[in-house]
Amino acid sequence: MIYLDNNATTQLDRRVAEIMLEVWQSGPLNASSQHAAGRSARNRLDDAISQLGQLLGADVDSPGGDALTLTSGGTEANNLAICGIGDTALPLVVSAIEHPSVLQCAGNQAAGGRIVRVLPVDSNGVVVLDAAAELIARAMPRPSLVSVMAANNETGVIQPIEQLAAICNDAGVPLHVDATQSVGKLPVDFRKLGIAALTATAHKFHGPAGIGLLVVRSGIAVRPLLHGGEQQLGKRPGTEAVPLAVALALALRLAIESRDASSALMNACRDHLETTLRGEFPEIVIHGNGVPRLPGTSCISFPHAERQTMLMALDVAGICCSSGSACASGSSQPSHVLTAMGAPSPLVDTALRFGFSRLSTLQDSHQATVAISRCYGRLGQKKAVEKSP
Asked: Which of 48, 140, 187, 386 has the largest CB neighbor count within 10 A?
């Protein structure tokens, strides 16, 4: 099996698994307990949060500094940001290509009467800054929150977060950034970006599923989604998963330490895949390849093969990929990302996503390219025969 669905989730790093097991086996772990075991758990938890803040460029150690809230993952962190930051009686602004955990949350609020403004993207999938300035700074009433992802989960296209942050800060509007795909792959400095909140999750960079985080800038209030405890200053009550928090911190540190070499490898794997396939099949379309993308992410339309048929053929051939967002790939709905980019239906209906990781190899890329070529060649020829008079 060749695993090329790393935008959905990544393989757990052995070192991360080992530290997680070590913490789990160290004894009872309730960081709210006042006895010795509880104090030990609290120290492990506080140390992990401190490390995470330093790695992300957030000041979580100073009194009154930035707040880092641990969550069950990126979806919960995004929901906490969308529902918990800003006045819900005022508009919310999101981009058209956000993850379903943002768009569906925004949709629920719209159904409840909140004004939701949608930022368009250009044909490369990049947010249109002129439209952003209009909808954020000039449209009245001004929004109380803007949410735009750092890099798209389907195409890998990187968004102009610094420019968006400048627009938001000039307008006095907080900006939340879903960075689940970019943390560990691209440099991230929370303070320097000038944003109000940031989401990340461990399983996107070889950490465990079930743990994520929301960093919120000092002075920004967050209303909790859950109630029933005082953990994490009441922002996310419930007994903290200390082993997962320690694993998250280690996974992030390992990702950052290897980032340059990993990015070079992932890009080499992606470039080999795309260049070889384009050389053999000039009709395929690589979405967003005209602008900066995440290392190792490739979204390709195969015009003569329906995406689910191609996906199943590749699965049989031992290639794991996806037909879009992992949270939506179980449905037959077309990609809202490619649709927002203005891609015609034949391309939307034939798009697959491939994602390499730091554990991928050039041999993986070569073998995958051969399998994709064979599957598409067979399915494309069959389709051409079916369409011939």
From this structure: 48
